[in-house]
């Protein structure tokens, strides 16, 4: 019985799948923190719903990563027995919820990306990934609608809501670049028709985001300095705290079945 | 999740009502007809139901907090998803219960404000803390189990919108109850540490759960009118006994014991339990339970922190309406 971290053979396909699984788990976890504390009951429902979609995506992706890896890892070992340096999610998604505007901007930036991403991945030559993408795309289409509507309402609502939402956009903008970054490990999978090339999605993403942001009477920052590191385990300080909570039971009672 | 027998009698207000209509109303109830929102009803019936349904709704919403306390720490992804979905269900119950209460003429805002001001009650059980993962199993197994005992008869309640809401709520609650029992079973079949965790949770929750059925029949204030109006069909003690009798074999199956050494089965097969500490119940109801302050503070914080969001949504809706009117005028 041990509490040590698992080791993972990060072949390109395992790493690729874990990155998407970690994205879904970390954002799903963040959204689940809202449950019982949202600005209105309808949003308690909607945020939990979105969180559940993401948790479902994470579980499928982890299970697939475990199958591809072919060792004795499984969804729970991936989620509960890797430390900060082994997590591969986007920095954007681990950022704290902040106020409702910040949560919605984070959601909006990611959902508009994920929707395009899953749609493209439906054509993956990897049939499991294509099937997960087909299911996830239906969910992310709703996440886009829900978060876009809020961006417009908040941006074009009151002076306070406008200010809060603009601040959230300004603060989170630096995490956008990472969504479109590709490293050598992913390049091979893209060339093989397994993975999606995110660079090709960027113009459409920017078009959708710009149009919603402008309807909301908000503006995108001019700055193009982008922070990266999540994909290789160089995270913000926030992730460690998230994981210490997420993993507390598995770390306290090693080896138990729940 | 649950409604508690807290209502006081409003019977004395009926003298101001139209006697003939009141007689017709009672005849409809006696004939097991459903009363619908647009039907005439005595003011006291409306008031009693508004209070009961809104207390029930508040309980669902406050009840999200003790379980929500474990969403971020659930021990597996499967448990995490199930718990998040369960707490979301409770929120859904709160929403349709507020909607049912609104059919009686009070707005959700008014009802929620009364709760936040500490004027409206919610179930006493949610003022106890969830200290370990086993508490999540115990809440599903016992708290939802007790809620079902209370709510199944409410599916036949004379007020249509409440009865219909209860049918859906009960279906989801039985699912939660089985889920809770399954968590307990996993713990009881697990390590010694896990089994001890399960036993500790049962020890802490058992008496508060028995209190969920409300005061004993001999001191219960409301039952006569509610029974006559077919809002309540069984007494507090009857429901409590039914619950105990159903629960004892389940605990035996789990290999757990009750924190009540005096418990014994009588000749009728009913399980007799020791005296309940009604002083504790009274204290918790009057605001002095272990978590009363935390629960209200959490709900108030969500409400206050969310005010600017609700204002923004209203402002935006107003602007849209204005723009649409301008466009129509052009």
UniProtKB/TrEMBL annotation, chain A:
A Pfam family (short name) is PaaA_PaaC
What GO CC terms are in its UniProt record? cytosol
Q: Domain of life, per the record?
A: Bacteria
The record's listing under InterPro entries reads: Aromatic_CoA_ox/epox, Ferritin-like, Ferritin-like_SF, PaaA_PaaC, PaaC
An example GO BP is:
phenylacetate catabolic process
The name on file for this protein is Phenylacetic acid degradation protein
Please report the organism this UniProt entry assigns to the protein: Bradyrhizobium jicamae
From which lineage does this chain's organism come?
Bacteria, Pseudomonadati, Pseudomonadota, Alphaproteobacteria, Hyphomicrobiales
UniProtKB/TrEMBL annotation, chain B:
Q: Which GO terms describe its biological process?
A: phenylacetate catabolic process
Question: What PANTHER family does the record tag this protein with?
Answer: 1,2-PHENYLACETYL-COA EPOXIDASE, SUBUNIT A, PHENYLACETIC ACID DEGRADATION PROTEIN PAA
One Pfam family named in its UniProt record? PaaA_PaaC
InterPro entries this protein is in? Answer: Aromatic_CoA_ox/epox, Ferritin-like, Ferritin-like_SF, PaaA, PaaA_PaaC
User: Where is it found, in Gene Ontology cellular component terms?
Assistant: cytosol
Q: What is this protein called?
A: Phenylacetate-CoA oxygenase
What GO terms are given for molecular function?
Answer: phenylacetyl-CoA 1,2-epoxidase activity
Native source organism of the sequence? Bradyrhizobium jicamae
């Amino acid at each position: 019985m041990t509490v040590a971290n698992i080791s993972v053979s990060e072949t390109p396909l395992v790493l690729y799948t874990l990155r998407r699984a970690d994205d879904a788990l970390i954002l799903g976890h963040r959204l689940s923190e809202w449950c019982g504390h949202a600005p209105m009951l309808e949003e308690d429902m909607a945020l939990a719903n979105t969180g559940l979609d993401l948790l479902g995506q994470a579980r499928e992706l982890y299970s697939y990563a475990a199958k591809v890896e072919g060792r004795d890892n499984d969804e729970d070992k991936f989620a509960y027995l890797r430390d900060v340096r082994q997590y591969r999610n986007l920095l954007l998604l681990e950022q704290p919820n902040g106020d409702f505007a910040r949560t919605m901007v984070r959601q909006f930036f990611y959902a508009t990306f994920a929707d395009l991403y899953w749609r493209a991945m439906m054509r993956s030559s990897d049939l499991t990934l294509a099937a997960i993408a087909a299911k996830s795309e239906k969910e992310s289409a709703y996440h886009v609608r829900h978060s876009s509507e809020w961006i417009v309402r908040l941006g074009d609502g009151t002076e306070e809501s406008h200010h809060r939402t603009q601040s959230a956009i300004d603060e989170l903008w630096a995490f956008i670049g990472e969504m479109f970054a590709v490293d050598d490990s992913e390049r091979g999978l893209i060339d093989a028709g397994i993975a999606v090339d995110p660079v090709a999605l960027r113009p459409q993403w920017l078009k959708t985001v710009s149009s919603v942001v402008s309807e909301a009477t908000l503006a995108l920052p001019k700055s193009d300095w982008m922070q990266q590191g999540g994909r290789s385990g160089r995270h913000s300080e926030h992730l460690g705290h998230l994981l210490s909570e997420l993993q507390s039971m598995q770390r306290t009672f090693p080896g138990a079945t729940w | 999740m649950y409604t508690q027998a807290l209502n006081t009698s409003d019977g004395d207000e009926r003298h101001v009502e139209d006697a003939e209509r009141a007689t017709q109303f009672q005849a409809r109830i006696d004939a097991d007809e459903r009363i619908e929102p647009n039907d005439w009803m005595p003011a006291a019936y409306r008031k009693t139901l508004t209070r009961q349904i809104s207390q029930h709704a508040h309980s669902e919403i406050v009840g999200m907090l003790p379980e929500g306390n474990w969403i971020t720490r659930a021990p597996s992804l499967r448990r995490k998803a199930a718990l998040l979905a369960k707490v979301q269900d409770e929120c859904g119950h709160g929403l349709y219960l507020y909607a049912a209460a609104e059919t009686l003429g009070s707005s959700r805002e008014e009802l929620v404000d009364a709760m936040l001001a500490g004027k409206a009650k919610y179930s006493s059980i949610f003022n106890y803390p969830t200290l370990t993962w086993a508490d999540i199993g115990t809440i599903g197994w016992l708290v939802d189990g007790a809620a079902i005992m209370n709510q199944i008869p409410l599916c036949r309640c004379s007020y249509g919108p409440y009865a219909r809401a209860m049918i859906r709520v009960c279906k989801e609650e039985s699912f939660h109850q089985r889920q809770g029992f399954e968590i307990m079973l996993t713990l009881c079949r697990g390590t010694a540490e896990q089994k001890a965790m399960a036993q500790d949770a049962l020890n802490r929750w058992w008496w508060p759960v028995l209190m969920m059925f409300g005061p004993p029949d001999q001191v219960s204030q409301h039952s006569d009118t509610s029974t006559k109006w077919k809002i309540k069909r069984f007494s507090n003690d009857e429901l409590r006994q039914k619950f105990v009798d159903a629960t004892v074999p389940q605990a035996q199956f789990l290999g757990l014991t009750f924190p009540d050494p005096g418990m014994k089965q009588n000749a009728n097969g009913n399980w007799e339990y020791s005296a309940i500490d009604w002083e504790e119940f009274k204290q918790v109801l009057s605001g002095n339970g272990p978590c009363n302050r935390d629960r209200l503070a959490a709900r108030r914080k969500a409400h206050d922190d969310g005010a600017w969001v609700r204002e923004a949504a209203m402002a935006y809706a107003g602007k849209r309406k204005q723009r649409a009117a301008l466009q129509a005028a052009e």
